[in-house]
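Researcher: Please predict.
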Amino acid sequence: MASVRRLSARTVVPTAMAVLFTLALILYSEEAFQAAIGGLELFLKIVFPSLLPFFVMSEVMLGLGVVHFMGTIFEPLMRPLFNVPGVGAFVLSMGLAAGYPMDAVITGKFRRSGMCTKVEGERLLAFTNTADPLFIFGAVAVGMFHSPYVGRVLAVGHYLAALAVGLIFRFYRRNDPERTAADPSGGSGFILARAYRAMQKARAEDGRPLGQILGDAVVDSMKTLAMICGFIMFFAVLVRVLEQARLAPYLSLPLHGLAALIGLDQSLVPAMFAGLMEIDIGCVQASTADAPAVQQVVVAGAIVAWSGLSVHGQIASVLHNTDISMKPYLIARALHAALAGLFTLLAIDPAALVR
C-alpha cells in the first residue's frame, strides 16, 4: 500500500505541475512568448556559435584517436590528482574552453565507448563542469557588472573551487573494481611511443574515413545543440511565468533563511532563486540587486558554479543512455557553488570594484 502511495505521488505531482504550467502559459502567453524569444536569441547569438566548433572538433579528435593519445600522455597526472583516466584531461580542457555542457557530452561518449568506468565518469563530471572564460569575463564581468576586475575575481574563485572539488571527489568510491587500464595501447615502453600506439589502435577500430567522421560530427552536434536550445528556452519561460504568477517569492522562502544565515542582503534572494533555475538570469539579477557590491559578486560566483537547473537538465539529457548517476553531480555542483562563493570572497578587493 505504501509503495502504491509513493507511486501515486510520483505520478500525480509531476502531472499537476505540468497542467498548472500549461495553464500559466495560456494566462501569460505574451510574457511567455517574449521569454522564449529571449532564450532563443541567447542561444543563437552566444551558445550556438561558441559551442558548435568545439562539439564538432571533439568528435573528430575522438574519431582520429587524438583523445587516446592524450589519455596515455596525461595518465600520470590525472590518475594521482583526480583518480580518473588520462582521457579526463581532454574532458577538462574542452570543458574549460567551451563551458557547459561540453564536459558531459564528452564524458557520456567516453562511458558509452568504455573509455571510463561509471565511477570515473561521475568523478569527471564533478570537477570538469565549468563555465568558459568568455562567459565569465565577457558576459558576466563586462556585460553585467561592467568591470573587468570582476571577471578576474570570478575566474579565480570558479576554477580554484573546481580544482578543490576534483581533489575531494578523487576519494569518491575510491576502490572502483572496474578501474580503466592506464595504457589504452596495452603495451609498454616510452610514453610517446605508447601514446602513438594507442592513437593508431583507436583509429583502426573506428575505421571511418575523415569525411564521414566530419559529417557524423556535424549531425550529432546539431542534435545536441537543438536539445540545449530547447532547455534554454523552456527555463527562460519557466522563470518568467513564475515571476508573473507571483509564485517566486513563496518558492524562494527557504533562500531567505539561507541568506540570513550566511549574512547576505535579503535583496539578493530573487537573484539566488533565479540563479537556482537559470544561470544568465540569476547573474543579471545579482548585478542589479540593491546590495553591497562584494555580496553581488560573491552571489554571482556561486550562481556560475551552480550553473542552474537548465544546465542540469542538459547534462541529464546527454547522459540519458549511460549508467552515470546525477546524484554525485548535483552534490558536486552544490559544493562547487559554496566553495566558489568562499574563494571569490577571499580573492575580492572591495576598493577595486567599479560600480
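Model: The first helix runs from residue 2 to 27.
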